[in-house]
Predict the structure of Putative membrane protein.
Amino acid sequence: MAVLILGLVIFLGAHSVRIFAEGWRDAQIARLGEKGWKGAYSIASIVGLVLIIWGYGIARRVPVPLWAPPVWAPHVTALLTLVAFILFPAAQMRGTRLKSVVKHPMVIGVALWALGHLLANGTMNAVVLFGAFLVWAVFDFAAARRRDRAAQVVYPAGTLSGDLKAIVAGVIAWIVFAFFLHGWLIGVKPLG
């Protein structure tokens, strides 16, 4: 569990600098330059992600059950992750109404992904992993909305065609991941 926690501290720590230390972040960007900062941020993120994957794999070998997930949990998880997979491209595409309504679709997508996986997994390692991402997403969304209000950010209205592109991209990615890649990469076939 220690490797998983270390990975979460590094990965989510790097992704939390703007939430908790934006002044320090700005000073580092000024000192290192934007490319230097992005390089250091990327290295920390990759190291953290590798440790998360490795640590979760180690922790899964000897799971510590906390509760038995309800029979409906995998179905709710599938629905929540489908929405998350739609929100991920909506965050990157221009002209989506989803972004104008949700404001920060990537973060909301991470929260839905984490919540769904918390519902479907009742082990200590799952609570640590998905709980950490859910807590991070809540803090990140709140911080991003505060920055939006301070900067008086107005998101463009978007179009139906932009939403349809995000929905199609998200559904295709979800199908590929849920039916093929999840079992191969994670070792669990969530939808049989």
Notes: Helices lie at 2-14, 17-20, 22-61, 73-92, 97-102, 105-120, 124-151, 160-186. The chain has two domains: 1-62, 65-192. The mean pLDDT is 93.
